[in-house]
Amino acid sequence: MKSIVAQVGLLGLFIAVAAQSATISTQNALCTQYAYASQDGYDILNNLWGMDTATSGSQCTYYYGVASGGGVVENNVKSYAYAGRQFTRPLISNVKSLPTTAIWSYFGTDIRANVAYDLFTHPDANHVNYNGEYELMIWLNRYGGVWPITESGSALETITLAGHSFDLYFGYNGDMKVYSFVVSDAAIGNFSGDILDFFNYLADNYSFPISQQYLLIDQFGSEGFTGTNATFTVSRFQAEVNI
């Protein structure tokens, strides 16, 4: 079990991985752009991939601790600090279930961020895990008017999955096809569901090639744009890939 915190130059992140609690402190710092750690079947990544769009600030991800400081350029994602499940990459059509639980909270002011699952897929099982042919996102909340990637500027439809209502958006990130399920009602602070249901819905309704796509990564975290003294806490995150 591990917990992480991102000192992102705009908001802080504390993630407790698995079903245990952790004591906040500032040890085991991951402070370089893509600093990484692995523990108990989970990956922890600082992932400050958008740092070049920030005019100030810094980011560190700590095991068992968190702090934050400032940065600007409000419409650009600065980072996606996350915890992700480790697994042998399967064809999604061979997966029996992708059960997951995430319990989280956000505190602070002027927050512009989302809280989201982020999964990449590709026909090549050996493809890199930081992009894919397809990206599936499940937004459990959004702050400050941030939007998912969208071609039309409006949702394709509103549907119910995992007992919650989502607006479905589609767009491109370069050549990558991005489907985003964005919660359409109140924030889902305690989410439990089977992510395979979301893939099956896309296969049944939007020609997602489920028998040709390998699951590359299954991760949960927050894409941060801007914020003041903001702290994102995940008290429980569990994910499994059942074949």
Automatic annotation (TrEMBL):
Keywords: Carbohydrate metabolism, Glycosidase, Hydrolase, Polysaccharide degradation, Signal
One GO BP annotation of this record: polysaccharide catabolic process
Signal sequence bounds: 1-19
Top-level taxon: Eukaryota
UniProt entry tagged with the keyword Hydrolase: yes
InterPro entries: ConA-like_dom_sf, GH11/12, GH12
Record GO terms (molecular function): cellulase activity
Family from the record: Belongs to the glycosyl hydrolase 12 (cellulase H) family.
Protein's name in the database: Concanavalin A-like lectin/glucanase domain-containing protein
Species per Swiss-Prot/TrEMBL record: Truncatella angustata
